[in-house]
Amino acid sequence: MGLSEILAYSLGVVSITTALLVVFSKNPIHSVLYLILTFFSIAGQYVILNAQFLFIVQIIVYSGAIMVLFLFVLMLLNLSGDTEPQKDNVFKIISVVAGGLLFISMIAMLKGIGNMNLPASPDSQIGLVKNLGQLLFSKYVIPFELSSVLFLSGMVGAVMIGKKDAEDIN
Amino acid sequence: MIAIIILVFFGVLLLFAGVLNMHKSAMPIGVLGLAFALIFCFQDIDTLFLGYKNMFLFTEYARAFSALLIFSTILVFLLGSYFLSEDNNYKADKFALMLFSLSGAITMVSSQNLLMLFLGVEILSIPLYILAASQKDDLHSNEAGMKYFLMGAFATGIMLFGMALIYGATGSTEINIIWTKMLNGSFNTNLMILGTFMLMIALLFKVGAAPFHFWSPDVYDGSPTLFTAFMSTVVKTAGFAAFFNLFVFCFQNIGSDWKIVIAVVSAMTMFIANITAIYQSSFKRMMAYSSISHAGYLLMALLCTNAQQGQSALLLYLTAYCVASIAVFAIFILVQKQTQRSDFDAFNGLGKRNPLLAVVMTLGMLSLAGIPLTAGFFGKYYLFTVAFAQYKPLVIIAILNSAISIYYYFRVIINMWFKESDHHAFELTNVPLYTLVLSITSIAIIAIGIFPSLVIELFW
């Protein structure tokens, strides 16, 4: 077992443990902090795969921006363990059954994963910023440009819903 | 692609119109853009983008459904200027968001790549979350937007998971390559099956089929009625066209397991929607359940053995459904806006007060119920023939459900013609643009009802 494999497995253990802690911890603030750890350990996986761009985006966007947003919202709402609404038992049973079914099918899927036909020599340089940029502007230029429509409509919506109406100001 | 570029261009133009406070001219500009896009749907200048055909291809199939999508949106736009007449702040932006949403719908219909399908679904949905919540002072509208957003985000997550698994199984996101790999059998079966099912769940959510339908009554009921009309026509059409494109053209060879699931979901959707619709007292909520039940019938198109036949049936049914829904929603907007009511009793005595409106409403209801000599009948007829070859019990269930649906569709007709109106009821004033929309839709309902081949011959 090489060094990168040991690293990958230990990062995997860390991300699964922290992800479980996100779900199980009573205090929402703790959940958010554990989620930051999860994101960092996933970012570590990206480094092992030599995907530097994804690594830095993961750190900046998820661990940085989104987590700060989460923390702000939680602090503004002043949530804590005892104010959390209790869900009734029927709901709990249904969620356990549904989640369990998904879990079982994932396990069943993983059992036969041995005969995957992966490309013999994957391009290890593909995750570098330069190569990724070239790909984005050649093969994937249409989806790349089209996603601007998505962001534009998102921004329009944020302004439309967030802005005070003219009548309200007066 | 040209159609999408035109739509996005006009969408941005409308945003500028909103900034310059030209809200009155927003609707004509939008309709102009839609008309251009409709013309360019039929032009063959898409050779410009042939270099990207692994992403995107404007086939005959995509052309036909894009034309239907654009046509429905034009009708919704024509209804828009009266519906939004009190909104002086965001009118142009709302039209712009509808155009963006439509461009997403066309992307979905013409995608040749899972990546494009995903982008299309998102571009379709995000403006809709905003439009659903656009009535800011109305709690129901806020609830609708929030619910739609949370559920939609969850469905998107499942869809991406499924796509990732399919990519893992075949090593590509291109539909053509996935198809060839499946023919050769050079893919990982386990990953593929779970990936296909996750993708299917997400798409079933988007078209609002049971058991993933719980969001749709609340969302359809809470959203402003104009956007309910947009959702129940454009979103449903785009969802089913993309569903068919992916599953019938691509996953046909993966075996018949997914077809059994679709058949069960279809039967379940029909029963749940039709039986719940009977108990509704609000007309708008009844229409929401009616649209779920139509999703149930439409799922039968995916069970076809002959793709050519299946796509014709799908196109015909969706055309009939869109035209009839828009006619019904147009009249409902008039009733709701002028009487401020949305229950069945708001229609009492409409036959005496506004006979013409009542006639069109009756026509729309008959078409939705699938009574002969209306468009809906042939839609149902072709759809049932397509599925009849292999799934006879399902067709029998569907016919049974059509009979149930007659109960709640006829309830409106009975209220209009045979019930006395309340003492404070008054004659509705008609709006010229609504007359235009109602005449187009009623002509279409009758024309398709008599010559159903018209729609299909128009495209292939």
Describe the structure.
The complex is a heterodimer of chains A (170) and B (460). The termini of chain A are far apart. The longest helix of chain A has 26 residues, at 52-77. Chain A is mainly α. Chain A has seven helices and no strands. In chain A, 74% of the residues lie in helices and 0% in strands. Chain A has one domain (3-81, 124-169): NADH-ubiquinone/plastoquinone oxidoreductase chain 6, subunit NuoJ (Four Helix Bundle (Hemerythrin (Met), subunit A), Up-down Bundle). Chain A has helices spanning 3-24, 28-48, 52-77, 89-111, 129-136, 141-162, 166-169. The mean pLDDT of chain A is 83. With 460 residues, chain B is mostly helical. Chain B has two domains: 1-252, no CATH class; 256-460, no CATH class. In chain B, 75% of the residues lie in helices and 0% in strands. Chain B has 19 helices and no strands. In chain B, helix 9 (215-222) packs antiparallel against helix 10 and helix 13 (307-339) runs antiparallel to helix 18. Chain B starts with a helix and ends with a helix.
Task: Map the helices and strands.
The complex is a heterodimer of chains A (170) and B (460).
Chain A lengths: L2 H22 L3 H21 L3 H26 L11 H23 L17 H8 L4 H22 L3 H4 L1
Helix pairs in contact in A: 1-2, 2-3
Chain B lengths: L1 H18 L6 H16 L18 H24 L7 H20 L3 H19 L6 H32 L4 H10 L4 H19 L7 H8 L2 H23 L9 H22 L4 H16 L8 H33 L10 H4 L1 H15 L5 H14 L3 H27 L13 H19 L2 H7 L1
Helix pairs in contact in B: 1-2, 1-4, 2-3, 2-4, 3-4, 3-10, 3-13, 4-5, 4-10, 5-6, 5-10, 6-8, 6-9, 8-10, 9-10, 9-12, 10-12, 10-13, 11-12, 11-17, 12-17, 13-15, 13-16, 13-18, 15-17, 15-18, 16-17, 16-18
